[in-house]
Amino acid sequence: MSRMKHQAIVGNIGHFDNEIDMAGLAKLPGVHRTVIKPQVDEWTFADGHGVIVLSEGRLLNLGNATGHPSFVMSNSFTNQVIAQVELFTKTDEYPTGVYTLPKHLDEKVARLHLDALGVRLSQLTKEQADYIGVPVDGPYKPETYRY
Predict the structure, then answer these.
(1) Average pLDDT, the chain
(2) Cβ-proximal residues to 105 (8 Å cutoff; 6+ apart), any chain
(3) What is d(CA 116, CA 135) in angstroms, rounded to the nearest whole number?
(4) What is the greatest pairwise CA distance in the chain?
(5) pLDDT confidence tier of residue 141, bands split at 50, 70 and 90
């Protein structure tokens, strides 16, 4: 980091908290840390130039995100758990391989999170569903559609 350009922004978008050597940075002679705001620090080196480190080198999508990171993580983890249950309970339908979460399960995850957004979802009538060519209970988009 001492060779980075002045005011370079350093952020960790990996999966672990040890991918940026913050302990090593803190031990360098003449290095000074200035807290700009929570989760944003400028580390100034002995020569006077500095770098901005986000989330203390930890996962910045959690530390620096504002507004909805836990909601996003809840959707992601719910997708993962529902996918695991699907694979475990229907092994005959999923031989070893890589799969995209089926639309009906993706929509189930969305429905589970509607309350958190204050959303109330009405159900299509049979006539409406027939008119747009989908089942009353979904999925409402073809398998080829990506959200």
Answers:
(1) 89
(2) 79, 82, 83, 86
(3) 25
(4) 74
(5) confident
